[in-house]
Amino acid sequence: MTLTIRPAEPERLPDFAGVVDGIDLREPISAQTAAAIGAGMDKFAVLIFHDQHINDEQQLAFSRHFGPLEQANADIRRPEDRRLASEVADISNLNRNNEIMSRDDRRRLFSLGNMLWHSDSSFKPTPAKYSLLHARIIPGKGGNTEFADMRAAYDNLDDETREMCRDLVCMHSQIYSRGTLGFSEWTEDELARNQPVPQRLVRRHPGSGRRSLFLSAHAGEIVGWPMPEARAFLRDLNEHATQRRFVFAQEWRVGDLVMWDNRCMMHRARRYNPGEVRELHRTTVADSAPTLAQAA
Ligand code: OGA
Ligand code: MN
Hints:
The chain is α+β, with helices and mostly antiparallel strands. It has helices at about 30-45, 55-65, 105-110, 150-155, 160-165, 175-180, 190-195, 225-240, and strands at about 5, 20, 45-50, 90, 130-135, 145-150, 170, 195-200, 200-205, 210-215, 220, 245-250, 255-260, 265-270, 280-285. Strand 9 (about 200-205) and strand 10 (about 210-215) form a beta hairpin. It starts with a strand and ends in a 10-residue tail after the last strand. N-oxalylglycine binds near residues 120 and 133.
């Protein structure tokens, strides 16, 4: 089998969202194959692997080629509620007993934050590099995941706005992002674990050299700016950055694995019938350093 990568939508998005063929993720991969996938990520920022019927161990083994993994501890499930291993994030509407969570289940309401455009773990001092999301059970309709290309968003800013963004630092917190949905009751422990962290607004991708906007639903302040002005500006940037022309929509099939680069991308979950099961498993590769410690 030879590895090939082609754009999913060649006319509309020639360098965003690639489809990978010629690989079976149930088998170990060589360092050379991992490097080819890394190069594909540098170009396309989202890669789609169809028909990969893998288990968590196989997903973990593949993910580890790209760096150290994050612990999946950013949600509000208690350790005794968890269904999956500590490095596998449970992106499902199921509880510990594999039943659909009730409509007002606090863990479900927290997870609806994934419907806001965001970058994974931008609320952690060192945010995420790659996320790898694998589809296990998919509802009959809806429940797409959308990806917005923050490189294209940056490239298409007007000169004046690009200059305004250049040296800005935003504060990111899950307390803020969930708060915009009206989720505002936190335990002392959750508050303590979710203090805002600073992140650069403009990043330079080490693999491609391209600059991008590091936006996320978690960004609720700009350091040194009055709050209303900061929030109005961030809203404006988000509106610009999530125009349809920068967006790729993943329509899931069971067995799809989608890998994306959180350093230059936002994504969000779309609505589906909450009476149906939707189950995906996510592994997350950590970035190497806080964004302020990285070259601009
Ligand atoms: C995630 C996420 C979106 C979705 O797994 O990080 O935001 O569609 N998921 O479930
Ligand atoms: Mn996410």
